[in-house]
Amino acid sequence: MGKILKVFIGAFLVLGANIFAAENQNIQIFSTDNSNGSINAKSIEKAFNDSGVIVDVNNDMNSIFSKRYGKVYHKNYNLAIFTNPARVTKLMKKYPTIGLITPLSMSIYEDDKTINIATLSLAGMSRITKIPMTDPDLTAYAKSVDAALHKALPKGKYLPVNHTLKSSKPLVTVFTTEFEVEDGDTITDAKESFEEEFESELGPVGFLIPKSYKLKHDNYDFFDTYSIIRFNAIYPVYKNHPDAGAYAPFSLVIYKKKGDDTVHIAYPSIDNWITDLDITDKETVKAVKETQEKIKNILEELTE
């Protein structure tokens, strides 16, 4: 019995070490040898789904980039979005900011003989949402991602990451407004009208919506999130920073609490990629800043 207890405690400590290994870094990169080519984006998706961490979109970006830009920089490169629905529901009750990372995103990239998965770490999840790292539901969410990573890459390990940790810019871009409800309409009708207009503004300036979510909870009249991407931003970034998939696609949340007239709209500020990923190339910096300004301007106009 004592031996079994020691094994259990040892396993628990190893899992805890994995979760907090990147405590001071916002991104974690899980990597393994893939010389035999047995692991790919689809097998990783299946492993995540089997672990209860649901992958909703998993796109081969090399196929998209080669057609759009004529050149790719990595052997294989996928961007995927995923959630743990049970954990998100629990966190929504306490922290509407969980919408800022619903869904989470990851890049799956392969060069030479190594395959890698980049996601937000527990520290990164906490940093954006302001949910304490000690919150049991956030910790459980991070542990579920860790378990999925280990199932996807059974012999994997976390790579050292040494990105800049602080930014002089706001981590989150936030808007508040109140929806006018026309006679005969409901607050849901007003919200849907707003979202239709918002979506119509995104396409002409290069944004795409891989997926949107309408989450339900008794605390909210509505709680909707979007996964949004702009190829003209991620393409120049991914060349030297393939782990940018931990941030892209980015999530945007629109919610209204019951009994409160205020509608909240927020997303992680895109220009923080520059410091978070240590981007120095001038044209890449320009593309990232432009992307932040474009979506910010759209929301400023819609919430005036």
Unreliable runs, pLDDT <50, ≥5 residues? 1-17
Rg over C-alpha atoms, rounded to the nearest angstrom: 20 Å
Fraction of residues in helix: 40-55%
CATH architecture: 2-Layer Sandwich
Question: What structural category do the secondary elements indicate?
Answer: alpha+beta
CATH superfamily: TT1751-like domain
How far do the termini sit from each other?
Answer: 66 Å
Stated plainly, the CATH topology is called TATA-Binding Protein
Give the number of helices.
10
What global shape is seen?
globular
> In total, how many domains does the architecture comprise?
1
Mean pLDDT: 92
How many distinct beta strands?
11
Describe the protein's architecture and organization.
This protein is of the alpha+beta class. It has one domain (2-302): TATA-Binding Protein (2-Layer Sandwich). 40% of the residues lie in helices and 26% in strands. The protein has a 6-stranded antiparallel sheet. A 5-stranded antiparallel sheet has the order 7-11-10-9-8. Strand 4 (104-111) and strand 5 (114-120) form a beta hairpin. Helix 8 (231-238) packs antiparallel against helix 10 (282-302). The model is unreliable at 1-17 (pLDDT under 50).
Helices and strands, with pairings:
Layout lengths: L1 H19 L6 E7 L7 H10 L3 E7 H9 L6 E8 L1 H10 L9 E8 L2 E7 L1 H8 L6 H17 L4 E2 L13 E6 L9 H16 L4 E9 L4 E11 H8 L11 E8 L5 E6 L3 H5 L5 H21 L2
Antiparallel strand pairs: 1-5, 1-6, 2-3, 3-4, 4-5, 7-11, 8-9, 9-10, 10-11
Protein name: DUF302 domain-containing protein
Keywords: Signal
Organism: Sulfurovum lithotrophicum
